[in-house]
Amino acid sequence: MPYEATRYKEHHEVRLPLLSQLLDKGWNRDQIICPSPDSDDREWQVPRTPSDNSVRESGRRFAGFPVDMAIFDEPQHRGEWDHVIALVETKAPTHEEGVSQLETYLGLEPNAVLGIWSNGSSISLVYKQVDLHYKVIRDAVLPSPSDNILFAGDEPLTYGQLRNHEEISGKGLNHLFSELLDHIVAGDSKSTRADDRLDNMCDMLLLKMDSDTNGKMARNPDEAVLEFQILATPQETAKRINTCFEEYVDKYPFLFEDNTSKTIKFDDETIHAIVYRLQNINLKAAAPETLSAAFQVFRSANVKQGEGQYFTPQRIIEAAVKLTGVDYHDKVIDPACGTGGFLFESYNNLLSRATSEQKDEIRTWAHHNLYGVDLDSINVKLSRALMIGARDGSTNIVLGDSLREGKWPEFPKLAPVIGHEADGSYSVVLTNPPFGEKLKIRATDAKAAEYSICKHTSGGAASDKYADTELGLVFMERAYRLLTNGGRLGIVLPETYFFSTSYRWFRTWVDERFDLLAVMNVPMEAFQGFCRAKTNFYVMRKKPMGDKPALPLPSWAEPGRTWITYAPTIGINKDGKTLFKVTEDGIRTTEIDDKVLSDVEALVNGEKETETSRFVHTPDSLSLTFLGVPQYYDQTSVLEFERYVGTHFGNFSTRSLGDLVDDGIITVENGHGSPSADTRNGTIPYVKVSDLRAGMVNFNPTNMVPLSVAQRFWHGTDSGLSPWSIVTPSRASKNIGEPSMLLPGQEQAVFTKETLIMNTTDKADFDNFYLGWALDLDVVRRQWARVVFMQTNREDLGTRYREILIPIPDTREDGERVSLHYREYYSTIAQSRSDYLKARAAQNQ
Predict the structure, then answer these.
(1) How many angstroms separate the CA atoms of 377 and 398, rounded?
(2) What DSSP designation does 302 have?
(3) Tens of pLDDT, residues 168-198
(4) CATH superfamily to which 636-836 belongs
(5) Could you tell me the pTM of the whole model?
(6) Rounded to an integer, what distance in angstroms lies between the CA atom of residue 1 and that of residue 16?
(7) Does residue 460 come out as left (phi exceeding 0), alpha (psi in the -120 to 50 range) or beta?
């Protein structure tokens, strides 16, 4: 609450003089919360319990202890709980009581490391050390902002004291790395470029993991003193870290082939702060998610999404590796390996299934059979470090451009791994390549490498000329060249490639070279933190050609059939965090909700079909089907519809909208088009998909076009619409399939092409009211989810509306009987609307 002068007698005698001293020391008034008569500051509240802190994090009101002042790391973070660094108390009458109170508060405020107590005549400082003990200094001098307030513990940190980060903070590593990035950007005086910050932060992570590894491998890990911990001063900490880094570079020189320095290029205070925040956490136990999380946070800061680099969540990697079926006999490459997640999981999956006698053989296998390539030197460093942590395979990860052969001479180690001599030498290619419409290989580079997949026109027609082509597609041909006869390709690709008419040429190209063995749904949530592109994981087999023997199919595969899982969850929620199962009572459990992985495990264990997976016959032509779209094969909504109709409308038949159109019983047309924004200054409504809500067509007064513009889109003097037409979005809307009724008087409007306008004809035994009623049935509306695909990043229906089934009455009377309430509802609205408009017009005359 606002300051009340009578509440704090010590305000003028203690608090204001102390505030003045802090400002004299160099602290910024804008980074201090201190209630006073001339301030709107509210007292800073320290949560009373850890659960209160969780409530605070969610933005809700919580129970707290008020403190006299709170100091934040930067003025721009003033008032943010995760940036408070010091708490100030002037209330307690004695030093002992004041210190005790501050120790309590510092224990409850997770990011605060300093407590200041004053009674006006003396000052005591309380430092929260890294071991969570407290260092108390009586009769102290106030610190300045440049002074060190991060103190080591009374005893050296040992490996046995390391803990999982979530146990310490309740937050994931992503949150920690975000905090570190904020600190580096705001305070480091040496590293000013984003790439430099990423590179140096990676080096710090490698040192931390190496320190954890050394502690774990010590004779007595619980008592092994770690090198990665702060010392008494930032200068001492930085000196030790740089000594360790120099030794690390000498130990693993191939990680730093492009480095000319053996020094961490952060200033001493930044190094000290990073070590302080990381030293208690067991990063070694968290790998590989640790390095992937670091990649995600720092890559996001560097805007690498524009380069098509997307963090591949571990849950996708785990399911993908199991589905691809990597085993001891395989030679595996990831030509766009990023931070090495697929390579690590391939090795780790084999190791987890090996007996103690087999583990050494698996490590040897990794050294000779796991390969990776990436164009980013930091990715290569991280991938190699990840494999070092796994104890082998690191030397086979090389820097280079997998696609542009003209650049290969620039990368001396690339040729043996991915050059022409490597073609046909791999049994498995496993990758998540960069993809995006703007990420393309130039036609000149495509011609130099003779990529057949690049021989098409901009519209997708076959051509003898090379065209600029999306990188993700070209990786398909690179994989094809690297694979031996019968080799397997496991790849993450946008779903758009497998249904859009503009990519039909690509599906034809795939038909000629691969058999599609499996399609694994990747729910939208998995990549939602980076993009809205819908992707899937595809397992393909290079078609055997020539006399060379072909590798056998995976044990689970069936010739002429494709396995598909359309499971809706993969253990990741829309915020990128772990998705847990929830009971019918709404209670969250500790069991991860990952139906995709469950389906994959069931398949490899011999179970051919589950509630969310099954085999389907592979068509002769992939280009004419939706085989690459998992949700299309989920027949749950169709079966539910048929059961419902059979139970509730025994005398009704069922037909698809497409059949009704073909028989002339209904008409389905797209809207007129989209007038440009600068023409929206007239009197004729322009209706967008967002204007179709709650079963109504809602005119937006800000979207009105002149009659002349409307007539251009109508191709005549009127719209061609009639009252009681059924309108639904067909693109770029969550409400695709939801019917809206066009009321009398609304016919003169321009509708966007991204709508469908439906009407019955004279051949129908039912009218538009019945059609609207049928489309509005829940069992009908649920069918649309199966046929609405994600076109790049927008919902798209195409012509698949034709597959929607609706009940058909035996007689017009039956139809009018069941839809009577629908007719009365809209007729009443239409009459009320007409009465209102007439009354309004009369009042305005």
Answers:
(1) 9
(2) T
(3) 555 667 777 777 887 787 777 887 777 788 8
(4) DNA methylase specificity domains (3.90.220.20)
(5) 0.82
(6) 19
(7) left
